[in-house]
Fold:
Amino acid sequence: MEAYRHIVERHQARIFYLGLKFLRRPEDAEDFAQEVFLRAFSKLSGFQGAVPFSAWLYRIAFNLAVNRYHVKKRAFLEVHTAELQPDPALSPEQRVLREELAEWVRRALARIPETYHVLIKMHFFDGLTYPEISKALEIPVNTIKSYIFRAKELIRQMMKGWEKEVANG
Structure:
């Protein structure tokens, strides 16, 4: 138990920081950190030593963060696409186009790989910089840039269908 206490003390700040970046509220990040350490403790017998312990622990934390994100994904998309909801000042045609665009965006975000989705959320919705994401996820900045670029390309390709529909009226 003493060794485990040492592990928690050593890694708690980084796990808390990751939770804070995903969950945005300190009390949620604290609960997240506790859950990560409980999961790690329950899986400790499965640690093989093939990777450094910190990387193993961080992978557990990242997976938990992604899982929590996945559960909240639908609500997240509804909240953020609500900003695309029709403005009463828009013409009926503009309202219909905006509603269609919101639906296409929801579909595009739901179809991209989960890793890309998380990075898009962190960068565009949460406003994190590439270095902040890199630090939180322990992924090189250039990898973050590459994944976000690929995600934007995938979304761009999916949105071409919407543009064609609009052009064909």
